[in-house]
Amino acid sequence: MASADFVQELTCPVCLEVFTDPVSLECGHHFCGACISQVWERASGDVSCPQCRQVFVQRNTRPAHILSNVAERVRQLRVGTAERTEEFVCQEHDEKLKLFCQEEQEMICVVCALSAQHKMHNVIPIKEAAQALKEKLEESLKFLKEQMNQSVWSKQEGEAAIRGLKDQVDGRSCEIRDEFEKMHQFLREKQQQMEAELQREADKILTQLENNLKRTVEEISSLEEVIKAVKVQLGIQEPQGLLKDIQVLLKRCELPVSSPGVVSVDLPEDVAEGRLRYLKVWKEMRAVVSPVPERLTLDPDTAPISSSSLRI
């Protein structure tokens, strides 16, 4: 049966029973759907997590389908040991499954081991196979947790990069607006053109960052499912139960986790550095609203300054 520590992890902090229709809060803690609803019904205004006391403006919950499946699996595992043991009988020879074929990765009986199909295979006792498998699963669990930590770190980095990019875009947009507020229609058209170009470049980077973040979130979700499945398998005490359908779980444990590439959040230099562009726009504006005057001829008798001091 599942260990006490594992069952404790699947216990609702409110009703102290194994989860029923569990939901996840924004802080990451889980409760039975009915339990958290009853707690929040008694609260007026903002609500909080009964476990960590984090306050939420909105009463948002999300169904925890994977946790619900694991909790249901634990209930099934509480069936009597004798009842489950009867399931592990060779359907072909009606003998107990006492051996494990390493080549076929399946439990077999003594008669199967002597058959042509398995007699050339490496066959070991179930207890020995279960112990080796347990050690392998523990190593896989350690590896998966490391991958989870890496993915969480990547998620945090991606979120920080997105916030930094948005702050950079907001700051540049504000500067552009301040510059162009000083000008009339001609400069307003230039303002719109530059803001559109800035946003296009920002959107390119933002799309890459959001794609990386989406992949990271998907990796985290996959890792959570595998980790929970491994924990459930490790909670099975009987060797037969531990080895049943183990090929699928082992393959899931070996799934590689791809680290998203690093995306630079620096805007292109011609967009980020606006001084030269402002100078160019200013010159264009002068050409439009201030045509160069024709050559002037001054009367030396009336002019207050000499013609040599005139600069046009």
Q: What form results from the Cα inertia axes?
A: elongated
Secondary structure category: mainly alpha
What is the number of E strands? 8
- The low-pLDDT segments are 290-296, 303-312
Provide mean pLDDT, rounded. Answer: 80
The end-to-end distance, rounded to whole angstroms, is 96 Å
Strand content: 5-15%
Your description of this structure?
- The protein has 312 residues and is mainly α.
- It is 56% helix and 7% strand.
- It contains eleven helices and eight strands.
- The chain has helices at residues 4-9, 33-41, 65-77, 81-85, 110-114, 126-180, 185-234, 239-243, 246-253, 269-272, 275-289; strands at 22-24, 30-32, 47-48, 55-56, 62-63, 99-101, 106-108, 123-125.
- Helix 3 packs parallel to helix 7 (185-234) and helix 6 (126-180) packs antiparallel against helix 7.
- The longest helix has 55 residues, at 126-180.
- It is elongated.
- The chain starts with a helix and ends in a 23-residue tail after the last helix.
Kindly summarize this structure in a few lines:
This protein has eleven helices and eight strands.
Write the layout of secondary structure elements.
Blueprint: H1 4-9, E1 22-24, E2 30-32, H2 33-41, E3 47-48, E4 55-56, E5 62-63, H3 65-77, H4 81-85, E6 99-101, E7 106-108, H5 110-114, E8 123-125, H6 126-180, H7 185-234, H8 239-243, H9 246-253, H10 269-272, H11 275-289
Antiparallel strand pairs: 1-2, 1-5, 3-4, 6-7, 6-8
